[in-house]
């Protein structure tokens, strides 16, 4: 057997081993996100059907992101004591209870509390999955694996949103179906013989003050993007119901940004590897702002609203990946994990504010205030990036690079914003 043939056989064996080691996790994630997409959209429709004030609906949506911040922190602690599979199973069980709890109650306060619990659970599941996948990945397959992760998470969530028309949001059935899917998500992970989750390693801590001093561009962008994504995700079902979109369109409208993000995440993130990341982010923010203006001018019930909202999501969702990658370009390798954790927290705090921003604009301007919020917030991102480019004009020097892991985040968020392998630049400067 020649050396080349042996190399091909070994590569095929590695691919088979990797597929066996990850299939359970990917199937479980698909079921979880399918449940999450259905649940979140059903809750938005139910809140509107019950006639809740827009401000109250904003509180319920913001509770998810508050839970997201808490969950990402608490799960890191749990992984070191009970491990990945037990943490995954416990979070899925808690998620099932929360989804059923919303279905059998009819008051906004328990809905908000249970929505916080679902945010905690989804954030925890993302931490489990990404830690697991990053341990299994190598420099040769990391980009492809994270791209597959992006497709599974975004696609399953969008699929869940899209089938909301099949259920009556006022009765428990749809919530029960979502809970069933979340319960089934435990089976492939816990019964996969080949699953070999890692034991997380402790990393050095870094403060937000330190990161703000080293890379203010990354932190400022991350926070503003969090607000914008919280606004995108928070009230789409409320908007769609309020303007009278056909029932079959409500789920599609809510899913449109996720679908757009899934399609454009890779090319936009890849472009930021070859160009100044700030310029790529500026282009994306300006594009999202312009698309928001188009949405304001488009008739509310025209089918092009679905298309343009998808374009807006496709341009906006990669902005987190760009901000995170830019931050990691300037952070020492031993601080990467700690910096990623701080970025998630900062993004989550911003996302908590997003639903309040869109709710306030809808109260003042009516349903079109939803789109005006997105125009203003993406305009703020664009202005901030212009200021930072003028303050620090020299981008990082393009030199040979090594592909390393960059933790992903959704948002998701429901919609998880997933990064690809990034380029580690060798640089002379210590701040941006």
UniProtKB/TrEMBL annotation:
<feature type="transmembrane region" description="Helical">
    <location>
        <begin position="210"/>
        <end position="235"/>
    </location>
</feature>
<dbReference type="Pfam" id="PF07690">
    <property type="entry name" value="MFS_1"/>
</dbReference>
<dbReference type="InterPro" id="IPR005828">
    <property type="entry name" value="MFS_sugar_transport-like"/>
</dbReference>
<feature type="transmembrane region" description="Helical">
    <location>
        <begin position="279"/>
        <end position="297"/>
    </location>
</feature>
<keyword id="KW-0472">Membrane</keyword>
<feature type="transmembrane region" description="Helical">
    <location>
        <begin position="247"/>
        <end position="267"/>
    </location>
</feature>
<feature type="transmembrane region" description="Helical">
    <location>
        <begin position="145"/>
        <end position="164"/>
    </location>
</feature>
<dbReference type="InterPro" id="IPR011701">
    <property type="entry name" value="MFS"/>
</dbReference>
<protein>
    <submittedName>
        <fullName>Unannotated protein</fullName>
    </submittedName>
</protein>
<keyword id="KW-1133">Transmembrane helix</keyword>
<dbReference type="GO" id="GO:0022857">
    <property type="term" value="F:transmembrane transporter activity"/>
</dbReference>
<feature type="transmembrane region" description="Helical">
    <location>
        <begin position="88"/>
        <end position="105"/>
    </location>
</feature>
<dbReference type="InterPro" id="IPR047200">
    <property type="entry name" value="MFS_YcaD-like"/>
</dbReference>
<keyword id="KW-0812">Transmembrane</keyword>
<dbReference type="GO" id="GO:0005886">
    <property type="term" value="C:plasma membrane"/>
</dbReference>
<dbReference type="InterPro" id="IPR036259">
    <property type="entry name" value="MFS_trans_sf"/>
</dbReference>
<feature type="transmembrane region" description="Helical">
    <location>
        <begin position="369"/>
        <end position="389"/>
    </location>
</feature>
<feature type="transmembrane region" description="Helical">
    <location>
        <begin position="170"/>
        <end position="189"/>
    </location>
</feature>
<feature type="transmembrane region" description="Helical">
    <location>
        <begin position="20"/>
        <end position="43"/>
    </location>
</feature>
<feature type="transmembrane region" description="Helical">
    <location>
        <begin position="303"/>
        <end position="323"/>
    </location>
</feature>
<feature type="transmembrane region" description="Helical">
    <location>
        <begin position="344"/>
        <end position="363"/>
    </location>
</feature>
<dbReference type="Pfam" id="PF00083">
    <property type="entry name" value="Sugar_tr"/>
</dbReference>
<feature type="transmembrane region" description="Helical">
    <location>
        <begin position="55"/>
        <end position="76"/>
    </location>
</feature>
<feature type="transmembrane region" description="Helical">
    <location>
        <begin position="111"/>
        <end position="133"/>
    </location>
</feature>
């Amino acid at each position: 057997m020649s050396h080349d043939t042996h190399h091909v056989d070994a590569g095929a064996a590695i691919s088979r081993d990797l597929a066996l080691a990850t299939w359970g996790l990917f199937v479980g994630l698909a079921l979880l996100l399918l449940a999450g997409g259905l649940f979140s959209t059903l809750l938005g429709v139910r809140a509107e059907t019950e006639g809740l004030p827009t401000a109250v609906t904003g509180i319920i949506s913001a509770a998810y992101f508050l839970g997201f911040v808490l969950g990402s922190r608490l799960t890191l602690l749990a992984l070191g004591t009970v491990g990945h599979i037990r943490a995954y199973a416990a979070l899925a069980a808690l998620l099932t209870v929360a989804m059923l709890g919303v279905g059998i109650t009819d008051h906004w306060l328990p809905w908000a509390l249970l929505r916080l619990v679902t945010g905690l659970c989804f954030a925890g599941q993302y931490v489990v999955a990404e830690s697991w996948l990053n341990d299994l990945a190598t420099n040769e397959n990391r980009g492809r694996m994270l791209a597959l992760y992006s497709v599974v998470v975004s696609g399953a969530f969008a699929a869940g949103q899209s089938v909301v028309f099949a259920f009556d949001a006022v009765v428990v059935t749809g919530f029960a179906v979502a809970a069933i899917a979340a319960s089934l998500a435990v089976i492939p992970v816990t019964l996969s013989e080949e699953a070999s989750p890692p034991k997380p390693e402790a990393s050095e801590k870094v403060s937000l003050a330190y990161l703000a001093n080293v890379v203010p561009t990354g932190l400022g962008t991350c926070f503003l993007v969090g607000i914008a994504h919280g606004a995108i995700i928070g009230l789409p079902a409320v908007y769609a119901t309020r303007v009278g979109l056909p029932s079959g369109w409500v789920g599609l409208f809510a899913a449109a940004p996720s679908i757009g993000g899934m399609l454009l995440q890779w090319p936009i993130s890849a472009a930021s590897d070859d160009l100044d990341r700030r310029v790529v982010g500026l282009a994306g923010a300006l594009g999202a702002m312009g698309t928001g203006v188009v949405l304001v001018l488009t008739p509310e019930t025209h089918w092009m609203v679905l298309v343009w909202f998808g374009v807006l999501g496709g341009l906006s969702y990669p902005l987190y990946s760009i901000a995170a990658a830019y931050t990691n370009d300037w952070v020492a390798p031993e601080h990467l994990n700690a910096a990623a954790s701080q970025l998630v927290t900062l993004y989550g705090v911003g996302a908590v504010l997003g639903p309040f921003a869109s709710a306030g604009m809808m109260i003042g301007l009516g349903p079109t205030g939803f789109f005006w919020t997105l125009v203003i917030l993406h305009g703020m991102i664009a202005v901030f990036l212009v200021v930072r480019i003028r303050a620090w004009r020299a981008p990082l020097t393009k030199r040979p690079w090594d592909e390393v892991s960059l933790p992903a985040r959704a948002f998701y968020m429901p919609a998880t914003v997933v990064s690809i392998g990034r380029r580690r630049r060798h640089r002379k400067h210590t701040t941006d």
